[in-house]
From TrEMBL:
The keyword Cell inner membrane does not apply. The keyword Transmembrane applies. It comes from Roseburia hominis (strain DSM 16839 / JCM 17582 / NCIMB 14029 / A2-183). The chain crosses the membrane at residues 29-49, 61-79, 91-109, 129-156, 168-188. InterPro entries: CmpB_TMEM229. Pfam families: ABC_trans_CmpB (PF06541). It comes from the Bacteria. This is ABC transporter permease. Keywords: Membrane, Transmembrane, Transmembrane helix.
Length: 198
């Protein structure tokens, strides 16, 4: 046996989705961008309806709001695998709890360490320091039911229909664009609508 034959074969690391774990990771990246872009479109629609104007609510410049992407991944990881065992009402309440907890954590962190408020529910009933409110919690619950009980399965089937190389190419492109957007926003932050800066 030659000496180099004992070395590990790293070529598989560069190949698209050779294992179930690599597919799972590619799926979560896909879910992250679906949630991020979906959240961006949702908030744009709210502003179009309320103020009759286009507004980018995010810190980034691209058409994505990462907090929604994180929520989509968390909902899937915590509820997606159990959706057949949990009644939609259970999905609603668990999604409301997960989404509200995530919103509270991120809102408190941004306000405490960066003196930055991306949202303020002080004008809504049943709010907690403006970080969370009952209205938003109900919205998270409805979004969780739509995501876990309606959308996730067909979107996963659509993802599986693509070849591994296409999936790898799409994820790589999105990650590169997202990384460039994050770098630009750190230097020249986008002051989105209704965001309070110090």
């Amino acid at each position: 046996m030659k000496k180099h034959d004992r070395l590990p074969d790293f070529s598989k690391l560069c190949a698209p989705e050779q294992t179930p774990i690599s597919f799972f990771l590619s799926q979560q990246i896909y879910f992250f961008f679906l949630g991020s872009i979906g959240g961006f479109l949702w908030e744009v629609a709210i502003f179009l309806y309320r103020d009759k104007t286009f507004a980018n609510r995010g810190f980034l410049y691209g058409p994505w709001l990462p907090v929604y992407g994180i929520g989509a991944v968390l909902f899937y990881l915590l509820l997606g695998c159990r959706r057949k065992k949990i009644h939609p009402a259970g999905v609603f309440f668990l999604s409301a709890a997960i989404g509200t907890g995530l919103e509270l954590l991120i809102g408190w962190f941004l306000d405490t360490f960066w003196n930055l408020r991306y949202w303020d529910y002080s004008g809504y009933p049943f709010h907690f320091h403006g970080y969370i409110c009952l209205y938003a919690a109900v919205g998270f619950g409805i979004a969780g039911v739509l995501w876990i009980c309606v959308l996730e399965a067909p979107l996963t089937r659509l993802w599986k229909r693509l070849t591994p190389k296409v999936r790898l190419g799409l994820n790589t492109l999105l990650l590169l664009l997202f990384a460039a957007d994050c770098a630009a926003a750190l230097i020249f932050p986008n002051h989105g609508a209704d965001i309070t800066f110090p």
